[in-house]
Amino acid sequence: MSSKSKAILSYLGMYFTGILFLAAEKKDEFVRKSAAQSFVLSVVAMLFRVFFSFVPIIGSILVIIFDIFFMILLLFLIIKASKNIYFKLPFISDLSEKYVLDWFK
Question: What is the tally of structural domains in the chain?
């Protein structure tokens, strides 16, 4: 499987395939960074969804808006990965490169 395909799959499967490719891939830095970013982005997205769901009255609207934003962001990252480009998301990629990549060396 090509590194481009692995990076795309790491975004499609979010945290699950992110962890899978981090554990399986030891050499390809593009796949490792994409998988780590996918994992952190998924976890942060889940936390935001939980937080928004507890907001009274407008919580469900916030969840819907956030889900739309998240899907657009994932689509953007998948398109970048299909062109062999690692797009660094502010804060998310810093967390993933600083902490998550070290967990799976």
Answer: 1
- Render pLDDT for 65-98 as a digit per residue (tens, 0 to 9): 999 999 999 999 999 999 999 999 999 998 888 8
Residue 72 tokens read as 């657009």
* Spatial CB neighbours of 60, under 8 Å, sequence gap ≥ 6: 53
Among 71, 6, 79, 85, residue whose Cα is nearest residue 41? 71
Can you give the pTM of this predicted structure? 0.88
Range of the domain at 69: 3-103
Nearest in space to 26 (alpha carbons), one of 104, 103, 91:
104
Give the separation between CA 54 and CA 99, rounded to whole angstroms.
29
Q: How far apart are CA 62 and CA 32, in angstroms?
A: 32
